[in-house]
Automatic annotation (TrEMBL), chain A:
Span of domain HORMA: 3-186
Main location: nucleus
Recorded superkingdom: Eukaryota
Stored SUPFAM superfamilies: The spindle assembly checkpoint protein mad2 (SSF56019)
Compartments, as annotated in UniProt: Nucleus
Protein name, entry field: Mitotic spindle assembly checkpoint protein MAD2A
Xref: Gene3D superfamilies: HORMA domain
Coiled coil: none
Pfam family, any one: HORMA
PANTHER family: MITOTIC SPINDLE ASSEMBLY CHECKPOINT PROTEIN MAD2, MITOTIC SPINDLE ASSEMBLY CHECKPOINT PROTEIN MAD2A
Upper classification of the organism: Eukaryota, Metazoa, Chordata, Craniata, Vertebrata
Keywords: Cell cycle, Cell division, Mitosis, Nucleus
UniProtKB/TrEMBL annotation, chain B:
Keyword set, alphabetical order: Repeat, WD repeat
Superkingdom as given in the UniProt entry: Eukaryota
Residue stretches of each WD repeat: 244-285, 327-358, 401-420, 464-496
Lineage, uppermost ranks: Eukaryota, Metazoa, Chordata, Craniata, Vertebrata
Identification of the protein by name: CDC20/Fizzy WD40 domain-containing protein
């Protein structure tokens, strides 16, 4: 695996996204396979459409991360039938621009990367235990909040924020990559009490 | 709206479970966590407590050592250091960098917004346009976390992705057993704010004292320096029961008798006083100890007292020669003392980290050390918190001080420790709340809160936050619906978190028998 300024950052997010999709049951569990990356056993999807989608998004994200033009990454889970937003995983990214410009790129040891990926995955796993069940078929979308003056690349479109009406929110542990600090939270729709 | 309970619980869980990865010093957040965990730094910017100011102004030498006997230079990793001579060490509290409250992340953007939002009502209205755009910007920032106008939201074109047709999310099978916080039927509501706050000025900030007790007649007694106040929880009146003559003396412990008409008071001048509350008269002043009496517990007509000397005395209050027994197993201040509800065992906890169990002496004769049943040394900190389980006989809960932070549940018969839980914070008091079969703990450094645990699983049910400084004592109301806590922030907070279902309550009330006063006939 690559160890670079933005490499680990986006890999973490790719694994994190896969993890959320797996844990929340958006895709059938049997469509996920375990791969070894950074000496960790991690889940990745085998669904071809999803795979290609994620590859596209992640590679673009990598570029934006490197340029420090990304502010947030949001995974939105919507009800397939009604389009209502049920869950919203938000990762706020604070980029240390000075670090990017410094002459010597900060190297990250495998151990640190592992640790960070593990903590992202673990957080997601822990959070999932109390999130309400997603009982209807769901779709998901990945939104990237970028700087306003960014040129929109091919195939990307502008979108609304897709927020939840009156959500319950839980803030998760923050973690860092070599040049970014990521704060994360998950917002979900309150379920009606029986 | 943020689900406060859920968020707090999760934040607590996540921040304690996950190690702090970041080695880069640029994030002050991590530094804050580290410095908070290091409990050996003196507080640099705290104002003097009122009693300290009073002490320095009244200028007496006896007040110089107003602090727990233990040295505060105990870090989490090392084992406990034994206390030096009492009264010598200065009180030390952990440093909380930059203020009293632990605030995890200060985002400069949010601070600006916050300031703006706070002051905008007081600012004179300039021109319309500038105000609206500023307001909008502020609201936008607080809602979205940043100014929406400054960002573009992009996504990869095309329909949102979903799983192939026919796939039904079958995680339902796994999760149906657990109730999620948002969907729990809230038949029981645990408020995160206290039902009531009472002022407790001059309260001594001393871990080892037991200055709060709630009687079966619904009077809450609290000792503020050298005075005892009673708060009538039914009517709301406050009564000054007593005040010690000498300014340099102070009250060290309080304990109501079972039927609530007499109050035992332990003092710094080594006495145990007995007060008739109805007539507001002192009945006895029993001398036998050689050091202050920091703990008391009643067993019918016998009141047991624990002293800084490490000795426990039994006093039969009906007779002139009251001192009927001495127990000397503890080497340091006896700060925890509780007779079991059935009166068969006395549990004592000391600054020497020991928990001792003694039987009730036979036929009124003096109890002595040879009868010591159990002596547990598992705690690594002072054991002040002791509580007997009211619905399960022979079960005792104990809680350790700063270096220990564990709750331990013991079976007195078998002598074994049934379970143990690290609460991450100094435990000053424990009480069993029978209405929902829970255990409630009061904490000092570093959380300064009250936690409700399900018994016997010891899973966290709720956290009651609000005190600004360490919680020193906890007591349960006679109807078991409320806990009262007193803290170094000089307030008493009442948390009505255990109110019972009205139907269950009626059933319970039918079972309660009235107790007759044993002492009233016997006291001369």
């Amino acid at each position: 695996g690559e160890i670079g300024l933005s490499g680990p950052g986006s890999s973490q997010r790719a694994f994190g996204i896969n993890s959320i999709l797996y844990q929340r049951g958006i895709y059938p569990p049997e469509t996920f396979t375990r791969v070894t990356h950074y000496d960790l056993s991690l889940l990745l999807t085998t669904d071809p459409k999803l795979k290609s989608y994620l590859t596209n998004v992640v590679s673009q994200l990598k570029e934006w991360l490197f340029e420090c033009t990304v502010q947030k990454l949001v995974l939105v889970i919507t009800c397939l039938e009604t389009n209502e937003v049920l869950e919203r995983w938000q990762f706020d990214i604070e980029c240390d621009k000075s670090a990017k410009e410094s002459s010597a790129p900060r190297e990250k040891s495998i151990k640190t990367i592992q640790h960070e990926i593990r903590s992202v995955i673990r957080q997601i796993t822990a959070t999932v235990t109390f999130l309400p069940l997603l009982e209807t078929p769901c779709a998901f979308d990945l939104l990237v909040y970028t700087d306003k003056d960014l040129v929109v690349p091919d195939k990307w479109e502008e979108s609304g924020p897709q927020t939840i009406d009156q959500p319950e929110e839980v803030r998760l542990h923050s973690f860092t990559t070599s040049i970014h600090k990521v704060n994360s939270m998950v917002a979900y729709k309150k379920t009606e009490s029986a | 709206m943020i689900g406060k309970l859920c968020r707090r619980l999760l934040l607590q869980y996540l921040t304690t479970v996950y190690e702090n990865v970041d080695k880069m010093a640029q994030f002050g957040f991590e530094n804050d966590i580290h410095s908070i965990l290091k409990l050996d730094m003196p507080i640099t910017n705290a104002p003097m407590a009122r009693w300290q100011r009073k002490a320095s102004s009244s200028n007496t030498s006896a007040l110089s050592g107003l602090s727990p006997g233990k040295s505060a230079n105990v870090s989490l990793s090392s084992s406990k250091t034994p206390s030096k001579t009492p009264g010598k060490n200065k009180k030390q509290t952990p440093s909380k960098m930059g203020g009293d409250r632990f605030i995890p992340i200060r985002n400069s953007k949010q601070m600006d917004v916050a300031t703006f939002l706070l002051t905008k009502e007081n600012e004179p209205a300039d021109t319309n346009t500038s105000v609206t755009s500023e307001t909008q910007k502020a609201w936008s920032v607080s809602l979205n976390g940043y100014n929406v106008e400054d960002a573009k939201i992009l996504h990869l074109g095309g329909k949102p992705l979903n799983a192939p047709e026919g796939y039904q999310n079958n995680l339902k099978v796994l999760y149906t057993h657990t109730a999620t916080p948002a969907s729990i039927k809230k038949s029981r509501y645990i408020s995160s704010t206290p039902d009531r706050i009472l002022d407790a000025p001059d309260l001594r900030n001393d871990f080892y004292l037991n200055l709060l007790d709630w009687s079966s007649r619904n009077f809450l007694a609290v000792a503020l320096h050298n005075s005892v106040y009673l708060w009538d929880a039914t009517q709301g009146d406050i009564l000054l029961l007593m005040k010690m003559e000498r300014e340099e003396d102070y009250i060290c412990s309080l304990s109501w008798t079972k039927e609530g008409s007499y109050l035992a008071v332990g003092t710094s001048d080594c006495k145990v006083q007995l007060w008739d509350v109805e007539n507001q008269k002192r009945l006895r002043s029993m001398a036998s100890h050689t050091a202050r009496v920091g703990s008391l517990s009643w067993n019918d007509h016998v009141v047991s007292s624990g002293s800084r000397s490490g000795h426990i005395h039994h006093h039969d209050v009906r007779v002139a020669d009251h001192h009927i027994g001495t127990l000397t197993a503890h080497a340091q201040e006896v700060c925890g003392l509780k007779w079991s509800p059935d009166g068969r065992y006395l549990a004592s906890g000391g600054n020497d980290n020991l928990v001792c169990i003694w039987p009730r002496a036979q036929g009124g004769s003096a109890g002595n050390d040879s009868q010591l049943i159990r002596c547990w040394s598992e705690h690594q900190g002072a054991v002040k918190a002791l509580a007997w389980c009211p619905w399960q006989p022979n079960i005792l809960a104990s809680g350790g001080g700063t270096s220990d932070r564990h709750i331990r549940i013991w079976n007195v018969n078998s002598g074994s420790c049934i379970s143990s839980l690290d609460t991450q914070s100094q435990i000053s008091s424990l009480v069993f709340a029978p209405n929902y079969k829970e255990l409630v703990s009061a904490h000092g450094y570093a959380h300064n809160n009250v936690v409700v645990w399900k018994y016997p699983s010891l899973s966290k049910v709720a956290e009651l936050n609000g005190h600004d400084d360490r919680v020193l004592s906890l007591t349960l109301s006679p109807d078991c619906s409320t806990v009262a806590t007193v803290a170094a922030d000089e307030t008493i907070r009442l948390w009505k978190s255990f109110e019972m279902d009205p139907i269950k309550k009626k059933a319970k009330e039918r079972m309660v028998k009235s107790t007759s006063s044993v002492i009233h006939q016997s006291i001369r």
